[in-house]
Amino acid sequence: MEKVQCKCGHINPAGTLLCESCGRSLTEEGQKEKLVDMRYEGTARRSQTYNKSIIDKTWNFFSSVKIGVSLIVILLVAAALGTILPQEQYVPVAENDEAGLKEYYGEVYGIFGDVYYFLGLHDLYDSYWFIILVGMLAISLIIASIDRVVPLYRSLKNQRVLRHPSFMSKQRIYANGAAADDSLEKAGEKLKQLKYNVSFDKNGLLAEKGRFSRWGPYVNHLGLIIFLGGVMLRMVPGFYVDEMLWLREGETRSIPEAPGFYLENKEFILETYTGEGEEEVFGQAIDRVGNVVKTYRSDVVLYKNTDDSVPGATDNIEVEKEYSILVNEPLKFDGYAVYQMDFRLDELKAMSFALTNKETEESFGELTIDLTNPEEVYDLGNGARVELMGYYPDFSGFVDGEPQTATPIPNNPGFLVELFTPDTPEGEISFVLIQNTIEPFGDNTHKLSFQNVETRDVSGLTVRKDRTLPLLGIGGLIFMIGVCQGMYFNHRRLWIQQQADGTVILAGHTNKNWFGLKKDLDQVTEHASLPAYMDQQEELENQEKKDGDNKS
Amino acid sequence: MSGNDKNTNKRNKKRNRTIMRTAIMALLVAAIGYTIYNSATAGDVSVMKVGDNAPDFTLTDMEGNSHKLSDYEGQGVFLNFWGTWCEPCVREMPAMDRQYEEYKEQGIQILAINIAQSNFEVQSFIDRFNLSFPVTIDSNKSVMEAYSIKPLPTTVLVNPEGKIQRIVTGEMTEQDIAGYLEEISPE
Q1: For residue range A79-135, what is the model confidence (pLDDT) as tens digits?
Q2: Distance separating alpha carbons of residues A173 and A187, to the nearest angstrom
Q3: B169 vs A96: CA distance, rounded Å
C-alpha cells in the first residue's frame, strides 16, 4: 500500500484518516462529512493497513472489536449452559471415573445428558474448547490493544499546535469570529490557570489536559490480561490446590498435595443450640425449625515428616500443631489452609457380639470386632473362641461362592467366622451380616448374637492453597485503576488560531464529558473575549429533528 | 531518498512487522497450549511422569521386613497399588505372582502396596492367593499421595536407575506383566 501525502506536504502511513500533521481529512468520505471521526485520532490502525500474509490476516482477525465482543458473548453463553446440569464435582461419581461419569449423565438426563457430557459441559472450565476460547479472548485483548495504543500514542505525542482550518471547522466545538489582538495570550493565561498544558506556535495555541485518561482502556486490558495469567497459573503445578479430604475419627492421613504433612482427626463435634440457660433467647427459633447447629468442629493434629524421612513409614512424623478447625477458622500451615466443609455422622466403627447357644440362649462371652482392625482370633475363655476367617467391610454379594466387598469402608460388614465352644470343639462356620446370618454347612447350635455398635464421625475437609491470589489482586487493582483513569478523567483539547485578518478560529475536543469542556471554554471565552462557540453536533441533531418533523 | 532506498526501507519494515507479529502470536499460542496441556494432565497438578525420579519411601511388609525403594537401586522395581475391594486388582494378583517366580532371580523386585486396609484383610488375601512377593500397607496413604495414585489398580515400573519407566492404570494380563518386567530388568 502506498503512503498518503497530505496537501500540507506531510506523508502519512497508509490507511490514515486524518493527516497526522495538520488534521485535514484524507479520505473522500471524510471530506464530505460535517464532523470528523476523532476515534484513535484518525490514525492508521495497524490492522487495517496491511492484509496480505496469513500472519497479517490472523492479526487483523484478533484485532477486531467485533471478534472480541463475539468471544465474550460465546463465553457467557457457554458459562450459562454449564449451569443447566450439575458439574462433575457435584454428581455422586468419582471425579476421575470417566466411564462412570458418562454413564451417570446418560442415565440420569437421557440423550441431553449424553450430549452434555460429550461437549464437555459437565466439566466446563477444564474443557479444551472453553480454555481455547478464553485464550482467544486473551489474544484478542492483547492484539487489539497493541494495534490501537501504539498509533494513538505516536499521534498524541507528535501533536502539532497548528491544525488546518478544515480540521478545526469539523470539530464538534467550533467558533469563528472577530476578537481582540491580545485574545490568544489571554486565552493561554486563563487555560494555564485551569491546569491545561498550553503550547504556542506562531499564531496558534494548543491547550491540553488529562491526556493520560486516553490510556485508561489499555491499562484496564493490561489488568485483565494479568488476571487471566493468574488463572492460567492455577493449572501449573505448585500454584493452586483445592482437594477434598474425608478423615474419620482416629485416622491419620497424608494431606493431599501437601507432601510431608499428615492430619489426624481426634474428634468431630456437631453441637446444636439447646434453647436452655443462656440460649433461652433462641427457644422460639428452635421450636419453629427444630435443631439449629451451633458448631461444626474437627479437632485435629497436624504432623510433619522429620527432615530425613520419606513417605510410608508411620513412626518418623512429629506433631507440628494441634488445632480445632471451625467453619471459617481453617487450620493454616505452610501456605495451605484446611477448612471444615462437610461431615458424616455415625459410620460403623466396631461391633459387639455375644457367642450364644441358639436354644438355651446361654452366653459364652462377648467379643468386640474393631472394623478398622479386626483380629484373627477372639478368645472368650473357658474353651470358647471365635476365629475370623474372612472380613468384608462392604459386603456386596457372592461371586463363585466367594464373598465380595464393594468398598473398603464398613458400610455393610460381613464376617465369615468359625465358632468354637466346649460343646462343639470341631467348630461351626457361620457368615454373619447385619440382621442376617448364613450357615453354609447346615444348622449350627451356636450363633453370634448382635449386641451393639460403636460409631464414629467423618470430617469432610478441604485443603486449599492459592499462590495466584496476589497476582489476581494486582490484576484486579490495575483493572480498577484503568477504569478510573478512563471514567473519571477526560482528555480535553482546545485549538485556537488567530488569522491574519484578526479573526479567531477555535475548536475543542474531549473524549467524554462535553459539558465540562464547555464550562472551561465559557470561562476562557469570557476572559479573552473570544467569539461565541457552537456545539455542531447538537445543531446537526436539531437540524435532523426538524427535517424529520417537516417530513411527517 | 532514492526510490531504491525507499523500497528497501519498506521491505525491512514489512519484514520486521511480520517477525514482530509472528513472535507475539507464537508466544500467546504457546501460553494457551501450555495451559491446555496442564489442564489435560490435571485434576491433579502434581502428576508423576515417565522419566521422573521415583519418590523414595519406606514400607514394612506383612512379615515385618522394611522395604526402602532407594535400597533397590540397580534392580527393577514393580510397584502395584491395590485394594481387596478392587476386582481387577484381585484378578491380576495370581499372574503377578507367577511372573515374580520367573523374574525374581533376575534383579526384579515386586512390591504390592495396599491402600490403608487392615492387617487382617491383607493377610487373609495373601493366604488366599498364596502370594510370595512382599505385600505392604500404606496406612496413611502417603506413598499413594507421593505417587499421585488415583484409580486402582495402578502399577508403577521403576527401572534400575531409579527412574519411572512406565505407569500402568487398569488391569494387566500376564503377558503385559511379563513384558513390563522385561523392560525394567537390569542388563
Answers
A1: 999 999 988 878 877 766 778 888 889 888 989 999 999 988 988 888 888 888 988
A2: 16
A3: 12
On chain B, the residues whose CB falls within 8 A of the CB of A126 are 39, 42-43
* Helix, coil or strand: residue B33: helix
Nearest Cα residue in chain A from B147:
A311
Contact across the interface for A375 and B151, Cβ inside 8 Å? no
Q: Which three cell numbers stand for residue A375?
A: 483380629
Residue of chain B with shortest Cα separation from A239: B45
Q: Which stretch of A166-175, B14-23, B154-163 has the lowest confidence by average pLDDT?
A: B14-23
DSSP class of A40: G
Q: Is the Cα torsion angle A211, A217, A221, A223 positive or negative in sign?
A: positive
Residue with cell 510370595: B132
Interface list for A 143-182 with B (CB within 8 A)? 143, 146
Q: Which residue has the cell 513412626?
A: A315
Cell matching residue A297: 468442629
Rounded average pLDDT over A260-276: 89
Q: What percent of chain B has pLDDT over 90?
A: 55
Share of chain A above pLDDT 70, in %: 97
Q: Are B137 and B162 in contact (CB under 8 A)?
A: no
Would the CB atoms of A394 and B138 count as touching at under 8 Å? no
Q: Coil, strand, or helix at residue B94?
A: helix
Contact list in A for residue B25 (CB cut-off 8 A) is: 55, 58-59, 139, 143
Q: What is the pLDDT of residue A470?
A: 93
Over residues B138-159, the mean pLDDT reads 90
Kindly state the cell numbers that stand for A24.
485535514
Q: Do B42 and A132 touch (CB under 8 A)?
A: no
Is B110 in contact with B133 (CB distance < 8 Å)? Answer: yes
Give pLDDT tens digits for A485-543: 999 999 999 999 998 888 899 999 999 899 999 999 999 999 988 899 999 888 888 88
- What's the pLDDT tens digit per position in B81-110? 999 999 999 999 999 999 999 898 888 999
Select the residue of B18, B56, B145 nearest A256 (Cβ to Cβ): B145
- The residues pairing with A496 across neighbouring beta strands, listed in sequence order, are A205, A506
- Pinpoint the alpha helices (H) of A271-368: 283-289
